[in-house]
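User: Please predict structures.

Assistant: First:
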Amino acid sequence: MRRLHEWALNRFVRTRFRWLRLLLLRCFPSLNGDEADVALRELLRHCEAEEQWDNVRLVEQTRAVLARSRVIGASMAIAEAKLVDERVPDLLGTAEELLSEIEGDKAEDLVHQAMPLLEEAERIAVAPHPYRPLVLATLGHALWQLHELRGDDKHLTASAVVLEEAYDLMGVHPVVRFPVLMNYATTLLAASAVGDGAELDRAAGLLAEALPLASGPELAKVWSGLGQVALERCFRATELDGTRREHADNAVSAFEQALAHSEDDQDLRVQQLNNLSVALTERFVVDRGSVEDLDRAETALREAIACGRPDSAQTFTARATLASTLIERHEVTGRKKDFDEADVVMAELLEQVDPAYDQYPDWQANAALLRQIAFERVGELDLLNEAIVLMESATSRAATPVVKASRCEQLATMLRERAVRRRDEAELYRAAALHQEAADTPGLSAGRLVSVLGNLGGTMRALAALTGMDRHRAAAVRAYQAALAAAPEQGAVRAALLGNLALGLQDQYDHEPDERLLEEVLALHRAAVGLTSVSSPFGALRLHHLAGAMRRAWAIGGASVDDTVEAHRDACRHGRESAPEIELRAGVAWMRWAEDRLAWQEISEADQHVLASSEVLLRRQASREDRAVWLVLETEAGALAARSLVERGDAIGAVERLERARGRLLTTELAAADRALAAADARVPHLADRYRKAAERLRELEIVARSFPLNRTSFEPEGSP
């Protein structure tokens, strides 16, 4: 029998005659396990000597049939193998062709057409047939596509299960290994968005296995996957673990490699230009470094738009990403041109793309954030209303629960801004409910959860201020405490939360004074100041808040005058360096407190900060509401400074200080009336002309007044005409 087997074995390597295959199968069941293994190794040796994949594949097919023959018998195993050879290649090829055409509105229909073909192929190609891992790799990819289209986690889980089996069965040949490795890595990358990082590490390992098997566009896809891993690690890294910049650098390098290997595939090149731009922008965001990375990102995106198909998903994505990059640069440079172009790009995109498009809600969310920024610049409530409408639509169509949570938080923040402006209690309750819905979403990252809870605390503080209810003050404190418990031990995020918690407790102290509570407030403010960088504009704000807490402590004998004065002086000094609005607010707060103590010299010192900061602020392009607040503060400071000068015997100086504040207020009001003046031109042009002449004369007088010092000791009135 063994000789017969050896003869059949030798012939089997060189021919595929059906009777020889049948003979071999009939011989194998008579051999024991060791003899079968020897025979298989001999067969494999012959095939490797021939260096033909067809023969190697024949070995794997034979091994599969032999294994099945021990379970279902030789005849049924042969029939099963024949069915696989006849049906599976066609089923698999047709399914792959359908999946390759996925794009646009018909994407889900194409996947649904492919699924029955793949399910039948999976049913026929039972393990350990060598076709099975290829079938499973394609089936897993189709399930992942369904997850991408629907945002349905059950398809993502099913994809991971199928691809794990494919990985276990895939064997050694690159034709099978590469698609299994790539598809499994892609699914794990998607799963890592809500995982604990283990999926990300596994995906990186699979991509490292795939790297030596790839060339050309396939190599570009592997490098792109490695870039996605590095980018996700950058997103997950905390501010203090020291790896964010390293991961951002790795992402940029990987996408540069992907771009270099995608020359022959235009669509793939556009995708890699998009990816590279995201990595460059993230690297800038990590440490707010040179805008060179933003400039490179802009260049890459403009190339992607220029060379991409106008109606392709990648080109649409490039346009949306360009808008985000321009906004990021606007935040750094203040260039109005960048903001205006970003607004136009997003408006055109939403107008030109079908609302049924998968990414349309993402772009609505981006456009909403642009409208919110525009509102913060000019204070037009209509802009905030537009932002809310866009974000509501984007939230209702969020692809995943985590994405919906993010949009709920953004929508709630917009609603809070509008509610505070309108003093709308019902809308504040709606904002709080949205924050809570976001906080309760499973799978939120630690950073996102901290942000949601912090914003919830802010909304509850606003509700407490509007309603005066103790339960809202307590809810704000609980939200801040929960956010603090989830925050990293060091860094800017923790500093902000410490400051917010201090303010929440300070609200409770103001409502019901408790010396121990005030001690806790002071400790939290000092901790927030200690964690804030000297160069941060938030340093002045936190010193201002600390000074406010120290005034409360001074009032009950818990802080000395000298220490409290120094806290106010520090807040004003830091504000002058980085935050003139805080310098203005801190200066006025100091003047009020100094008036209570009749400390007239301190009022004069604080007034110098008010004058310097108001000069800077009122030259800015700002909303009417902001300018109105600044003018009210400067006017109040003028009155306090005038009283101080009177108390010190300088009546003329007091009059001049009052007139300076009044002149500033009038000048600003005149400037704000330009739009009304344009309307008056059409109706009463002679009055409009007189108004302009008077306004210009007032500006001239104000310029002349600024050239005189405020410490004049004499004043000669003009003679009568």
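Second:
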Amino acid sequence: MRYGKVLIVEDQPNFRKGLVKMIEDGAFGWSVVGEASNGQDALELLEQVKPDLVLTDIRMPIMDGLEFVGHLRRTHPDLLVIILTGYKNFEYAQAAVRHGALDLLIKPCTEQDVRQVLQKASDRFYERYAQQQKLLVQQQQQQDQELRAALLDLPSERGAAGRLNAFLADKELWLLQLDFAGLGSKIERKGDLGLLQFALSNITMELLKGAETEGGLLLVENDRFVLVTGQGKLEEHVREAIREACKHYLGIGVTMYSMGLAPASEQLSQLYRSIKRTSAAAAANVEPVREGGGVAEAQLHLNQARVKELEMQLMSAILRGQVDSLQELLERMLVELSNKTLEEMKLGALTLSIALHETVQKQFEPGELGAVAGIPCDMPQTDMNSSEVMTWAAEQVKLFMLLLSSWQASKSENLIERAIKYIAEHYSEELRLSDVAAQIHLNPSYFSVLFKKATGESFTRYVTRFRMEKAALLLRHSDMKIFEIANAVGFDEPNYFTNVFKQQYQMSPKEYRNMTGV
């Protein structure tokens, strides 16, 4: 999950800069990544900044908005577009809407107007993100079904062999044999087995991600997974970490057998049977779990998709600066969880907990929480009743909110100090909120909220005031020309500098200089 990126295309500098200010101060979940004064310049910026949303005027020199949107639709058909227009240009705007523009923003516009269209864009952006994630899950599910069918020598659709051969080219296969012997009667119910499979899958994928190793894990039979990685990529320390984590967190023994480089799809079943015989001989005293893995694998995919969905909802609230609504969202999730059956409740609780941990890892402190940061330190036990599962889930939510609050308190002061220092050193340059946020490794929308809370001013207001104070100092103590002072404090257009200065001091720079006797 990431925040949305906006490209603003507008030939009036004052209006363009005003839009940038509104967007970056408003904590809308969007960050301005580029500005252009005409359609031609904007087209050149597209590949560089890769926006998710374009705000474009219609009446512009060189290439107007209609021509620009026409080009966009041919090269970037899914890019979100909002049209900026005056009432006199409404007919043109209607033509642009026929080109697929999401909405209109009528000039002059208020902050509330901007908020409304950006909220609409946010809803569409996150809706598309959810659809993309759902499509990815469906594609992964189909790929896994085809691979499982080949391993178990089951019928498959026409074309599956070709797709599998392309996917498995230069891939290495590993068999993960699970040993449930130490769990005794804890996995008598299918739901408890599914809980353990889901947790094991997430632990393995988290460790691979932490080791920067691409891989995919397939549940073939209930006590056997097949892991697909790049050739020579699964190092011994990663394999050992998987074994240790599964034993520590789940009480499950895992033995890993190399299946070598993936053969042609028609040879996979023979290879799988051979490795199964090897693993069975090595663990002859272990009672295997006989039931096939097809239904369980489908449930596993649904659980993983739900993690992504919950994570998206959590991060969306944080990215938009809606920290207050986060508690309400989590409470609603707990209510939904309480209405499920016991087995569904256990899986749902673990799913929520994993989503919370993933959000912490990605949004708060990447890399600080260890290799299995996406896995909770414990999990709902298989012998828990409904009340105990709900208590456990509520504790996970409480810990998440405490961690969020603690992180905000411990980091905000130091981070804002660093931001202010960066502003003081770079105020003479183009200085966007997203640039400063990147320097302190924060999401721009969250940084905007944090900055205003710490300083009492929005980022843009703070930078503007700082620049005007520097400009006033130069007007009092130097004979620099006004356009030189404007440039020295980060304004490339003297007229815009003069307008901003007058807003701050209720007089023009020239009047201010005359008043101070320079």
